[in-house]
Amino acid sequence: MFDTLFKSNGKKVKYMGMVNIRKYFEVCLGSYYNPKTEYVVLWYGKIYYYRRRKTVQVYFLNSTTKKQVVVGVSIKSILKLPIGSIWVDGICEEKYDFETLYTTLDAYNDKQQERPNLTYTNHFGISANKGDYILEPDNYPVDDIKTDSNTNLVVQTGNTKIVIPSVLFFVAHYGVSKEINKVLISYHKEEAEERLNINDNYGDLITIPDRCVIADAVFLFYLKTNSYTKKLVWNLNSRMLRNDRQYLSLMAQPYHKQEIQLKILGLKIDDQTILCTEILGMSMPQGSEIEYRIDKPNSATYGEGVEPQTLKFQPIYNTIESDEIILEAQRDANNITTAVVRHRIEQIGKIRALVKSEDLTLDEVIDTCNSKVVRLPQHEPNTFSDGEDGNANGDIGRIQVLVESGAIHPIKNNFERLLRYAQDLKVTSGYSPVVIDCVNLANDNIFIGETVHGMHIAQYDSSVEVVFVMRLSFEKHGLFYIFDCQKKGSQTSGIVIKVANEDIFIRDAIRRILSQLFRNNGRLADVSEISGFSTIKYFKHTNGESSNWVKTAIDNWLQVVN
User: Fold this and answer.
1) What's the gap between Cα 257 and its chain centre?
2) Sequence-separated (6 or more) residues with CB below 8 Å from residue 278
3) Where are the beta strands (DSSP E) in 462-555?
4) End-to-end CA gap in the chain
5) pLDDT tens digits, residue range 18-59?
6) Is the whole-model pTM more than 0.85?
7) Predicted local distance difference test score (pLDDT) of residue 409
8) Hey, which of 144-158, 326-340, 527-541 has the most confident mean pLDDT?
9) Label partner for 286 (CA 20 to 30 A): which of 41, 142, 201, 430?
10) DSSP assignment of 52-107, as one string?
11) Other residues' Cβ atoms within 10 Å of the Cβ of residue 10
């Protein structure tokens, strides 16, 4: 049934899931898990507690047995598991490419107290009351779907209804980083407000929490200042935490009243019903500039930080189908910028061709252009990142938003410089595309995305205070791990390792490497334990505008190969 449905709606294409969920399969399926089998994502079910963490039931189709299995996955990873994605040995390299669609959620009508084209559907309630299903279970026969108690969104577009799973909408809409999702369903209101800096006594000024990103300023501003948002969000928080039930039902409504534009992938279930399988883009609410500052870094991680600087952030409100042109990508093309850049690549190409063919300056072309032009005063990148799920925070690249030029917070230490240099490779010809994940072994999911968090060790009196580890997955060059140390009073060279077998590397080698770095003043005294992972090279922390430590590290290794 599902094979026929998926194949009739789209073909298989290459797709980088950018997360390894093998451990979730092993925990939930045990000896029944076959890592060589293709498991296809079908549905997102209830949220439940697992080891004091909120986990989402994800329904997969075993392509060999044609039976369905349920696997608990961290809510932070949901946007990396679109419906139709195919997982083998815990990773995803393919998915079904369904039709790209654009839709709009009408603005909230205060008199009617609703959005005119938005309703909700709950399979459990329909089954109990013997009502009519919108997503007919016989047409999309996920196990237990008749008793699924999540309340999903239904967008009426002409004669067609688009069903958006509530879990998918929640992680895409409530903030940009997935830290906000985790906080809202894991902590009661008072602690959630503290973690999100809602009651920080700074008025409308938004203090970005350490684990969040700058683009979260929009959601946090509404949560801090807007009465409608407060009521809706804290009601959701209360429902999810009102008792210690093991399974929790989610109803995620739009947190603001403005019109919302969506770019999605849609699976046609029948002539009147489309299932949203993936959210590719979403507009943000319009408004005046939002003033924000960066939360003071955790001194245990970074060393003593500096006082946060105050900057301003304003989303750019391009309609998804409008003729607005973004001329240049921001220099550090990270996940906050790439969705807009990706969406505008064709238009950028056309306007540059016009400059070339008519021998006009860029300013002259802009003067003759009927479209709205947004200029970012940064150098032009060699190429453009695809903006697809670039970090574990989520999927930031899926949101249609740009930071104002200069709004990226200043670099405070060498670890942040390394991450920034790695992000530069996303827009460097010969290196892009690249997927970046920082590593922290203290987490259940050791891959924490593009977030600087170093690791400490308590067993040794070491001159090395913190070690920072970053994973880089290049489409052209393979998989690399970079290790860098922060020392008392001096700086070591960085280390780059080309990894051939990541499972063995993570299981057997990475902790040994860290132990050696802490014991041996930031150096590897014995490489025999990891020599099977290919050549180990060092790189220096050189200064200069043209220096890029990460590029140098990768080049050092490539020179050995070539």
Assistant:
1) 25
2) 82, 83, 84, 98, 168, 264, 265
3) 464-474, 478-487, 494-499, 536-539
4) 49
5) 788 999 999 999 999 999 999 999 999 988 876 667 789 999
6) no
7) 36
8) 144-158
9) 201
10) TEEEEEEEEEETTT--EEEEEEEGGGGGGS-TTEEEETTEEEEEEE-EEEEEEEPP
11) 18
